[in-house]
């Protein structure tokens, strides 16, 4: 049957069956065969109708199918074809191909239409005898193979079946096993025919069928006549003679509906349908300008010459767009002609005083066959007309205009969000400051808080404090070229470097993102949707927004139904066309325009200056569909084609072609910068945290070095190799390092009581004076030739000075005559004394004011008064800054 369809290029057909046994298997077998030959010839089953009553054939009446395959009994076929004749689906345009069960005995084919085709087995006596002989051979070969197989020794071919209840088995248990041997049998066929073999399902691989044609006989009665044969083993297995076709025609029908004409109504709306004037000379449209469509009323052109009217743009225009291209594809696929007419009242179709207007009114009043434009599907319209499946989704959207603004005064803060700035200012800076200061405090070679707690002055040798740490952190963060006091400890130095690394990463991210915000911003009304309170409650805004839509449209009826206050407010701002509404938004007459989302997206894309933007989410999402009159016979054929176009990508290609423009708002939205969130530069904070943890480990190692490693390293590092690696380490092993340690020892053993300190000073003064007098006596004795009895030291200590007497005389162990005697060498000694000369800074010594402030602050009032008297003398040698030099050198 499919070979007949393929021979005459009938691609589309329907299958009609009764409730005959195996009707489902018949349909399934056809589908499987279609899938096998799909690469060679494409078949399409338009309808599969199971007829139980005559009205079931109405599906074929509304279908475009012209070729039917019938599988039923003879009696059922007579009733089916009689009903088909009543429904006028027989005749010269309809072909019925029937099976063997319909032809049956080829006698008296009454009620069958002329021109039917049938598939028939040869049931003559000679043919039946030949087939019986072949069947016996097949059975015999099967038994032979079964018995000769050793695996079947325990199986018997005795069926033990009985039709009487209880007398035997109801199923032959060995039958399935025996069937396998039967289907593997190969029997030599007749001359010119292949061997008799079977498929895995037990079907003959090679079959021969007769092609029958119902035609008038000699007595003008219809008879089945053989017109050909079909042999399955041949590539071109179908051989057919002349056929009498339906309606006694000698030419085969087309197998498709004849070209039909449709009146299609539209309403222009870019990009779905756009209008342009035709060529003024020829009255035709160019290749890229679409097709001719009538825009004038039918009454206006009733008395006008049609060729002349085509030259007049007020009568006819060129229609182009998405819907026109889709309509052309429908016309090509379905084979119809059409007239494209604009709706007379120019409205989309809404209920007005209980009556429909616009496009829907033309369908309800059956003035048109179909509406083809961007007509939105809603429940009210579906109640009176039939819609096809949607060919595009849409919804109610809002379009606004962009306004050029100014740079935000907080633009320099916008590269990061609030949480990120808080983390930098409150956490990162504070953590870095306190860790640097803490590590400097705890470092063995850094700031010693305990010593500072014992005095009120500030050290001049190392200036570092918490506020100086803040200054250091801020200067490093902003890379300011200002003077800062660096920490001295190794751990705090490392922590400072880690903070500097964090600052580099932070500033790099900040600078890279700053340029996007330091530009002039485009401002617009950012509505969230139609249900935004700024629109749905317009009177609550000061000043109130101005917005509108197109009256008598789907958008207008939806807003009227769900937002009554909003609908009544926006009525003065409505516009008659989409382009008029968009122009009002651009000019500033309207703040927003509400309409179909896809149309507004198209207009945004067509704006070369990119001044427009759709905002918010779509409201009342629906789709565009083709509208037909109620119970239209064209609905199913258009639905089928729409689904095919969607599946093969034709709809998507049309959408991309018509919906794109010079401005792509989607790409521009991606260019807008958003503040960087915390997780986008969290790695910088992780770096800072890792630096803090590592610095803690370094602090522990530094203490271990000073406490356990340094004393052993000092014994081995005689050449100063450690200083080449680290100056701090080398310093801790040298003489200068010992000075620092001695200073600490001296501070620990120094008298803390001012009175004790005064007495110690007096004893030192008396001792120095006695030494000076002794040396003077020794020199006088030597001048008289008397040598002292004791050995003089090879290197005597330099004389310190003649000390000043206290303000109040104190008892002295020195004789009064010696004490009152002014030695001639005293002036020279005073001038040449160590403390009066400029210090030699090449020596390893230290000058400090560490005790100056504490000494004055902790002495009693009497002691301070004495100190004050000393300072009023003309000898500045008693300044507290020099009191420790001799002690330091003595200790060293």
Automatic annotation (TrEMBL):
GO terms for cellular component: postsynaptic membrane. GO terms for molecular function: ligand-gated monoatomic ion channel activity; signaling receptor activity. Residues 303-661 form the Ionotropic glutamate receptor C-terminal domain. L-glutamate binds at residues 381, 555, 596. The keyword Ion transport applies. Disulfide bonds join 610-663. Residues 760-787 form a coiled coil. Residues 307-365 form the Ionotropic glutamate receptor L-glutamate and glycine-binding domain. The chain crosses the membrane at residues 421-443, 464-484, 496-519, 681-701. It is a multi-pass membrane protein. The record marks 560 as: Interaction with the cone snail toxin Con-ikot-ikot. It is found in: Cell membrane; Postsynaptic cell membrane. Keywords: Cell membrane, Coiled coil, Disulfide bond, Glycoprotein, Ion channel, Ion transport, Ligand-gated ion channel, Membrane, Postsynaptic cell membrane, Receptor, Synapse, Transmembrane, Transmembrane helix, Transport. It comes from the Eukaryota. Belongs to the glutamate-gated ion channel (TC 1.A.10.1) family. This is Glutamate receptor ionotropic, NMDA 2B.
């Amino acid at each position: 049957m499919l070979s007949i369809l393929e021979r005459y290029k009938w691609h589309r057909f329907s299958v009609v069956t009764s409730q005959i046994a195996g009707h489902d298997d018949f349909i399934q077998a056809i589908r499987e065969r279609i899938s096998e030959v799909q690469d060679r010839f494409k078949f399409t089953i338009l309808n599969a109708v199971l007829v139980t009553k005559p009205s079931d054939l109405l599906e074929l009446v509304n279908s475009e199918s012209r070729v039917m395959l019938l599988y039923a009994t003879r009696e059922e076929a007579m009733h089916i074809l009689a009903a088909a004749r009543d429904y006028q689906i027989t005749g010269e345009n309809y072909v019925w191909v029937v099976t063997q069960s319909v032809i049956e005995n080829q006698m008296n084919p009454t009620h069958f239409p002329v021109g039917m085709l049938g598939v028939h087995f040869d049931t003559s006596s000679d043919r039946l005898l030949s087939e019986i002989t072949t069947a016996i051979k097949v059975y015999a070969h099967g038994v032979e193979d079964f018995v000769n197989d050793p695996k079947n020794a325990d199986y018997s071919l005795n069926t033990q079946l009985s039709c009487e209840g209880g007398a035997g088995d109801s199923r032959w248990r060995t039958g399935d096993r025996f069937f396998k041997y039967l289907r593997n049998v190969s029997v030599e066929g007749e001359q010119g025919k292949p061997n008799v073999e079977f498929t895995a399902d037990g079907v003959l691989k090679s079959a021969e069928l007769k092609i029958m044609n119902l035609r008038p006989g000699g007595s003008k009665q219809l008879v089945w006549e053989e017109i050909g044969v079909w042999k399955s083993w041949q590539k071109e297995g179908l051989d057919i003679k002349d056929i009498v076709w339906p309606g006694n025609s000698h030419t085969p029908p087309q197998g498709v509906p004849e070209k039909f004409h449709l009146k299609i109504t539209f309403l222009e709306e870019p990009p779905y349908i756009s209008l342009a004037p035709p060529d003024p000379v020829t009255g035709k449209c160019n290749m890229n300008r679409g097709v001719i469509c009538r825009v004038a009323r039918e009454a206006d052109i009733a008395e006008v010459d049609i060729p002349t009217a085509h030259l007049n743009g007020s009568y006819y225009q060129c229609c182009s767009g998405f819907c026109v291209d889709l309509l052309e594809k429908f016309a090509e696929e379905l084979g119809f002609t059409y007239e494209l007419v604009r709706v007379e009242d120019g409205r989309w179709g809404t209920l007005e005083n209980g009556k429909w207007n616009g496009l829907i009114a033309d369908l309800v009043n059956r003035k048109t066959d179909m509406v083809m434009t961007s007509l939105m599907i809603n429940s009210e319209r579906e109640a009176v007309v039939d819609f096809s499946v949607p060919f595009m989704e849409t919804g109610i959207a809002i379009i606004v205009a962009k306004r050029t603004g100014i740079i935000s005064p907080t633009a320099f803060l916008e590269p990061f969000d609030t949480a990120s700035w808080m983390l930098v200012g409150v956490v990162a800076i504070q953590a870095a400051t306190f860790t640097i200061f803490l590590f400097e405090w705890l470092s063995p070679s850094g700031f010693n808080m305990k010593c500072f707690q014992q005095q009120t002055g500030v050290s001049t040798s190392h200036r570092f404090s918490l506020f100086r740490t803040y200054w250091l952190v801020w200067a490093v963060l902003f890379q300011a070229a200002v003077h800062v006091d660096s920490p001295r400890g190794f751990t705090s130095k490392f922590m400072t470097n880690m903070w500097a690394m964090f600052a580099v990463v932070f500033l790099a991210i900040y600078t890279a993102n700053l340029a996007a915000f330091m530009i002039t911003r485009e401002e617009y009304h950012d509505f969230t949707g139609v249900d935004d309170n700024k629109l749905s409650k317009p009177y609550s805004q000061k000043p109130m927004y101005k917005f509108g839509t197109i009256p008598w449209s789907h958008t207008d009826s939806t807003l009227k139904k769900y937002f009554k206050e909003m609908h009544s407010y926006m009525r003065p701002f409505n516009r008659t066309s989409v382009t008029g509404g968009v122009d009002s938004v651009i000019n500033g007459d309207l703040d927003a325009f509400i309409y179909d989302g896809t149309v507004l997206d198209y207009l945004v894309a067509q704006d070369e200056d990119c001044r427009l933007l759709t905002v918010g989410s779509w409201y009342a999402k629906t789709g565009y569909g083709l509208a037909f009159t109620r119970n239209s016979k064209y609905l199913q054929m258009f639905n089928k084609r729409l689904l095919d176009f969607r599946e093969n990508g034709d709809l998507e290609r049309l959408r991309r072609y018509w919906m794109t423009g010079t401005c792509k708002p989607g790409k521009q939205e991606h260019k807008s910068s958003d503040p960087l969130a915390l997780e986008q530069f969290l790695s910088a904070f992780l770096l800072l945290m890792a630096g803090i943890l590592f610095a803690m480990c370094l602090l522990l190692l530094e203490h271990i070095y000073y406490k356990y490693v340094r004393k052993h390293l000092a014994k081995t590092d005689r050449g100063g190799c450690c200083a080449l690696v680290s100056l701090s380490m080398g310093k801790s092993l040298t003489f200068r390092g010992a000075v620092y340690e001695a200073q600490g020892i001296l501070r620990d053993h120094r008298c803390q009581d001012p009175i004790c300190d005064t007495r110690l000073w007096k004893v030192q003064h008396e001792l120095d004076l006695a030494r000076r007098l002794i040396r003077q006596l020794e020199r006088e004795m030597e001048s008289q030739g008397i040598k002292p009895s004791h050995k003089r030291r090879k290197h005597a200590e330099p004389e310190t000075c003649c000390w000043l007497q206290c303000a109040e005389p104190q008892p002295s162990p020195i004789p009064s005559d010696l004490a009152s005697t002014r030695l001639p060498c005293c002036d020279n000694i005073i001038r040449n004394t160590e403390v009066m000369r400029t210090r030699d800074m090449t020596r390893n010594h230290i000058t400090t004011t560490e005790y100056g402030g504490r000494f004055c602050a902790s002495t009693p009032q009497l002691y301070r008064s004495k100190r004050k008297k000393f300072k009023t003398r003309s000898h500045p040698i008693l300044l507290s800054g020099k009191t420790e030099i001799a002690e330091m050198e003595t200790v060293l």
